[in-house]
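Subject: sequence -> structure tokens, single chain

Hey, anyone have a minute? Need the predicted structure for the following. Not urgent.
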Amino acid sequence: MRYKIKEFDFDSDSLVLMKNGEPIAIRHNEAKVLALLLENLDTVLSKENILSAVWQDKVVSEQAVFQNISHLRVLFGNHAIKTFSKRGYQWQLKVATQEETLSFTESPLTAEPAEKTIVRAKSALLGNWPYVLLMSMFVFIFAVINWPNPSTGEGGLPIIKLAYIPFVDQQATTTLTLDDNNNFDFSELTDLDSATFLTSAELEYPNLSEQHPFVLAGILRSHQQKVYLDFVLKGPYADWKGQLHADSTQALVQQLEQHLRQPFIYQFLSSPQSPEFKKSSLSIAHQQSPQDSIILGQLIKAYIETTELDKAMVLAEKLATNANAQKDWQQLGNALLYQSTILTRKELYELSEKKLALAIKSFEHINDLPRQADAWNAQSWLDHQYDDYSAVKASLLKSAQLAFDAGDQLRELHALTYLSVLAHKHKQENDKYGYLRQAENKMTAYKLPIYHFAKVPFHYAIFAKTPLGKEPHLKQVLAFTQLTPDHWVAQSSREQLVVQYLKQERLAEAQTLVESVKTDNARNSYLKTLLAKAKGENESFIRHAKRTFEQAQLAGRHTLSLDVALLLRSTPNIEVNYDFYSLYIDENASAYWREANEVKLLALNL
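Reply:
Had a minute. Here:
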């Protein structure tokens, strides 16, 4: 339910409070008390009622109710909540309400006034001006130096040189090709198909990237006289994904080209970006193209990545509002899926489940099987939180079946391997091995590249109870990923082995493993840091640690940057700025990271 109170807007589902269109800080229990008061406008709620509804089984004193009521009065004014002696509390201010629904004729979301959007856009631009300036410089440098074709198209923008794989639908009845025009110079890659490329990108893209740094692939489908496209644009440092739909393939191509004409996309793909820079560049792009749902979705994900969940929720509401206005079931489903993710991060599982149910209904309207599979996959985590393994299993098997029906091999395999992991967590011995074997058999049947098979020994390593038991499986992972050493399972396995070798003082084996890596990235620099520390090479340790810290920050790997900061802070007799790393930990450490490093932090009084 959404409530309008003077200049405030409150969503009792997401527990997000906004004032004049901007999210404002409110504690979780305060928001729950506010929701309870607004849901019972005609009732005087006793302290016992509030304690039971908000704190449930937790033992707290009545003082908690008084404190939360006091904080709400600071926000809304002393007259907002009336105290009835020996009876309780009741809301007093005028409230307008609005239900949520999936109907496009009666939108559940209040459209945001244009002037508020403009005010917030200006505020975001002013607050991020250093990043705005940097981004503008990077875009200019990229356009002048790195653009593959120096000639210009419409509006003075460079002609964009793209390689693409023809788009084919699942039944192979429709093929969509792209023709050169005033904005694009297309190179058709006829020896590949999109489905194969998307399941083999770790191997295929490096072979193409020198000649074709940007490769476009996608899957077509039709439903109720509309054509839908899921596309992926691969670049040197990232992927750009989105969904489009239109009444005809010609209109779909026009939409795709209009979207891909935006220069910032290629800068986004061509250099590593810190989360802050990513947010700033996406914010600018969103202000320039406010109706582009793909950009808005990417911005929402960027805010989720940096755990700015209230801001992410506001933007997800905006995406849903736009989707309702355009009668766009695809983007409405995406918005609801984002909202569910945010609510799950906030541990509001019941509310998250409601959003997922609405998302599934949206995707069912357009027969979007992959996104339905995603929603059921997300539902399995909620089932896990309820400690309901039978529901976990049902949700993930549903996800796997939907992915199979869509011909989406990677989503299907992810559901099966994830089910194996959750079966392990729930001590379901037969299922954890059974579904892992089923996934392996599927990989064989689909003739997937060998690096996909690395997930099988990786999961066996998860199941192993001792470091000695894990070691052969982790080595098998590295054998399977010799051609793809930067794949996440390879990097994780390599790090686990190096840590194990160093603990066991097997320095020669650790050094051989560290020297085998060639890519200069944060995780590989971290391995060099650990090895230098173990060997007592302080100068090398400091150099690699600082390099890791910088790379981790740039790549948005907050946990790794915190790990290195703690490592530097806890190493005595080295020449580093201890105060800087202490302050970084103090300002950036999450509760989860603090809990995992509690002993080390206590030893340092951090």
